[in-house]
Amino acid sequence: MNELKRVITYGTFDLLHYGHINILRRAKALGDYLLVALSTDEFNLREKNKKCYFEYEKRKQLIEAIRYVDLVIPETCWEQKRRDIHDYHVDIFVMGDDWKGKFDFLREEGAEVFYFPRTPEISSTQIKDDLKE
Ligand code: C2G
Asked: Could you read off the pLDDT of 43-67 as tens digits, one per residue?
């Protein structure tokens, strides 16, 4: 019986939409267990200049309800990824290809790194803009 493969991905996942579901489904399909490192409100504000519509606890509740997701942990800083690979025994790291190349260094920690094509025409920003009209 080969070892269970553990997959991790990171993100804000505000205004949850089908683009998020698409990346989570594909990430889970690479292994047996999917961890989602969910950006905290402080991290979003400080590092991504993002003010979320839903606060962390609400975004966490939504992500935990998704069948593909096994565990949600907080993302509090950019630097935690290397440590997370070891602390959570991660085999595979996944992100959308807007991040292509940015996290290849995680291969040095023994993880496989995959970037999936983003789902076109949908984003939390797009939803907000459309609702403004
Ligand atoms: N995504 C996607 N298609 C979209 C929108 C988002 O595939 N139409 C993917 C992104 O590529 C990312 C994930 O969904 O892999 C979460 O997207 P965001 O919440 O926008 O995450 P981001 O702000 O890019 O934060 O340390 C990494 C960062 O936390 C990633």
From this structure: 999 999 999 999 999 999 999 999 9
